[in-house]
């Protein structure tokens, strides 16, 4: 269940009164500690004891090492199964916090309070939790729904532009895979500001919720939410590995350009549609220099994509704007051609 709330914390307070957890564990990173926690604490009306757990910000921390530290902290706090984890942050915090909560003592309840655009429109919804391992994105994780998602759009006021643009990529993806009008609305935005994006956030949340509602464990249609991620995740991992992390949304935007090209190479879309999608994405996202990565390196990482089966790299592709398909096994030559095409766009 999702509640979008305009500085109204009463629903959250009522939720806590009804649930009566034994303890609150509020997971934050250094930035959400500074920018979001004071608002949350200033509005919580509860006698339930709480602990603040802070980790450093960034994808680099979404690891097994951090997970082990967090599990240890919970045992030190003697956290029991009736405690509630509150994930206050972006996708790193909700992925990591959801993973810790869903595995500690085989699972304690958790709620997500997303503080980034990406978290609000995508990561906090749908119950995919997890961590990266050996630079493979989300390779260890669980499917576990939060008890509730509380969205306070005011948290976007302190979000840096690059992070807003990152979340916007997932919104564009929602338009491309499920709703032509949403895509049109989004690409018409001239200036990417929280104020301009705000009217379209709920539509993105609904698209994600609707898809997840049909296929929680990603056996079929949920794979369309992974459009842009087969290549995007591999490239995101490589930048992380080289110590030059990029945002998830930048990687997904690059992945969507390549996977749109693949959709064309597979004759799923016309040249006109291909051009429209790629030129719109390029308007919002700077070109990524991937020349230091060979196509083989990228392909190698894609071998561990979670959508693969029987040794095939399976893609989710576009059939038309607002409609996607999945489980498309693509010849290696076409994948390489799309990567070379992207390099030449610079
Ligand atoms: N589970 C899912 O369905 C899902 C979906 C999409 C992405 N993801 C994952 O989410 C992660 C990316 O999430 P993200 O983009 O939110 O990154 P993030 O959590 O790293 O947040 C981005 C940056 O913004 C800062 N920040 C957060 N809220 C802020 C605020 N209100 N004001 C100022 N700064 C703030 C953070 O400290 C961080 O530095 C990736 O690991 C990605 O794989 C998961
Ligand atoms: O919720 C989903 O399903 C998605 O694919 C949404 C993606 O935007 C998100 O990045 C997700 O974490 C990717 O999942 P993964 O299974 O490819 O790790
Ligand atoms: Zn994503």
UniProtKB/TrEMBL annotation:
Q: Which GO biological process entries does UniProt record here? A: amino acid biosynthetic process; aromatic amino acid family biosynthetic process; chorismate biosynthetic process
The Swiss-Prot or TrEMBL record annotates one GO molecular function as: metal ion binding
List, for all copies, the residue spans of the domain called 3-dehydroquinate synthase C-terminal. 167-308
Kindly state which keywords UniProt assigns to this record, in alphabetical order: Amino-acid biosynthesis, Aromatic amino acid biosynthesis, Cobalt, Cytoplasm, Lyase, Metal-binding, NAD, Nucleotide-binding, Zinc
Q: Which reaction does it catalyse?
A: 7-phospho-2-dehydro-3-deoxy-D-arabino-heptonate = 3-dehydroquinate + phosphate
Q: Per the record, GO CC terms?
A: cytoplasm
Q: Which compartments is it annotated to reside in?
A: Cytoplasm
Its required cofactor(s), as named, are: Co(2+); NAD(+); Zn(2+)
**What EC number(s) are associated with this protein in UniProt?**
4.2.3.4
Question: Which Pfam families does the entry link to?
Answer: DHQ_synthase (PF01761), DHQS_C (PF24621)
Q: Which residue range or ranges hold the 3-dehydroquinate synthase N-terminal domain?
A: 53-165
Q: In which pathway does it act?
A: Metabolic intermediate biosynthesis; chorismate biosynthesis; chorismate from D-erythrose 4-phosphate and phosphoenolpyruvate: step 2/7
* Family note: Belongs to the sugar phosphate cyclases superfamily. Dehydroquinate synthase family.
Q: Which NCBIfam families match?
A: aroB (TIGR01357)
This molecule's function is given as: Catalyzes the conversion of 3-deoxy-D-arabino-heptulosonate 7-phosphate (DAHP) to dehydroquinate (DHQ).
Record protein name field: 3-dehydroquinate synthase
The organism named in the record is: Chryseobacterium salivictor
**Which gene underlies this protein?**
aroB
